[in-house]
Amino acid sequence: GDYDFSKNDQDDDTDGTNLVTSFNPRYVNICNYAESAGDVGIRVTTKHFDHCQRRFLEFINNAEVSDDQVVDPESGGSAYDRFKNPFEVICRMAQQSGIMGIQVASEELLACQQELVHIASMNKSASRG
Q1: Who contacts 15 (Cβ-Cβ below 8 Å, separation ≥6)?
Q2: Structure pTM?
Q3: C-alpha to C-alpha distance for 8 and 12, rounded to whole angstroms
Q4: Which of 19, 35, 46, 70 registers the highest number of CB atoms within 10 A of its CB?
Q5: CB 46, CB 85: distance < 8 Å
Q6: Residue 90 contacts residue 98 (beta carbons within 8 Å)
């Protein structure tokens, strides 16, 4: 059937879920690296997910972002559980922002993953010495 483009404006939850699903493998990777990097990994992930949300909020609202608009990670549990809310919020906002938004989310998640991989490799070489 024909795709109804007018539906694009509404916040369609099913679409948000699709992005959550398609970005999930990278999200799982990020969480695994964050766990293995310990506190530093959690800090790095928090920083990236915070920054990414702010980019979207500024773009969507066309206004300054206040701290209470940003979804913080949970304080305990696995990295996967901690960052689940911010991750899903990012996916929903990316979906709302169209192709550009998906690209931004993809870039941000990749940047986060790369920084964590770098920390992990530093830790490995440090523990060898």
Answers
A1: 95
A2: 0.82
A3: 8
A4: 19
A5: no
A6: no
The helix (H) or strand (E) run that includes residue 128 is helix 98-128
Q: How many helices (H) and strands (E) does the chain have?
A: 5, 0
Using one digit for the tens of pLDDT, what is the confidence trace for 48-75? 999 999 999 998 888 899 999 999 999 9
pLDDT in tens, 24-52: 999 999 999 999 999 999 999 999 999 99
SS3 content of the chain, % helix, strand, coil (to 5): 80, 0, 20
Q: Is 11 exposed, middle or buried (0-12, 13-18, 19+ CB in 10 A)?
A: exposed
Tokens of 100: 């550009």
